[in-house]
Structure of GST N-terminal domain-containing protein:
Amino acid sequence: MTKPVLYTFPQSVWAVSLQLSLAELDVDADLKISPHGALPTLAHGGKSFSNAAVIDYLVSISSKKVAPATSITIVVYEDKIDPNFAFVASVRFYPPIGGALTDHPLPQRNDEEFAKVKGSFAPIFMSTHRPCLFEEACRGARGGTAQGLLRQGDRENLPSRCAHAKQGFYSASTAVWDSIKVFAVETLPAAISEGPFIGVATPGVDDYHVGAWIARIAFLLGAQKSDEGVAVLEKGFGPIPEKVKVYWSAWTARDSWVKAYPDRVLH
């Protein structure tokens, strides 16, 4: 049978989870760039799989046996801790055009934070290319979820600066970041029993998803390289449980991590 083909794009957080799983499971696959920047998709044997189902399939064809997914894999994909919405809702991520990254790591919760970096990509993106994010936050479309906000297409003649709509977005942003903190300092350490991984001695299915998730969160909070992760998480969230520190260290020491994050540079 031919090798699996993984259609992906480099900056996708869930594409990284697939790269971690490929390396950990010793599955040889051809990597191709998704032409539309869609969810990572794996094609093999006349079938196709997307998102978390890709890893389930890779586990099924790998000769290596790993700990199966538990409920935490479901949790890490919930809208309330969506790293893609956090990507949009992070002031720190967006530099002034042609400038350096700002150290400000927290959500766009009000006009002051939204305009924190004058001329940055965030206000331009939100007010011109995605005014519907404000609109949908205001109206609570698709339940007001983070994924629902991100999935809306551009629309014409929307009041992109509607004060009520902006406040809806700010509220959604704050709620997502609050939930992310709870996951990082409460949910994750509770899921790690003997450690260092959720899958115990070596990464299991849960870890492929959660490892990529926490790396993206550390990046959004300001970490550029792997060795900065714990310090940056503590700067953003306060004291980090020892289990999470050990989890981070165990992941970043693995060859699979270096393959997913060349030169240990996060993204």
Q: What stands out?
A: The domain at 1-65 is CATH 3.40.30.10 (Glutaredoxin). Residues 163-191 form the longest helix (29 residues). Confidence is low (pLDDT under 50) at residues 92-105, 117-161.
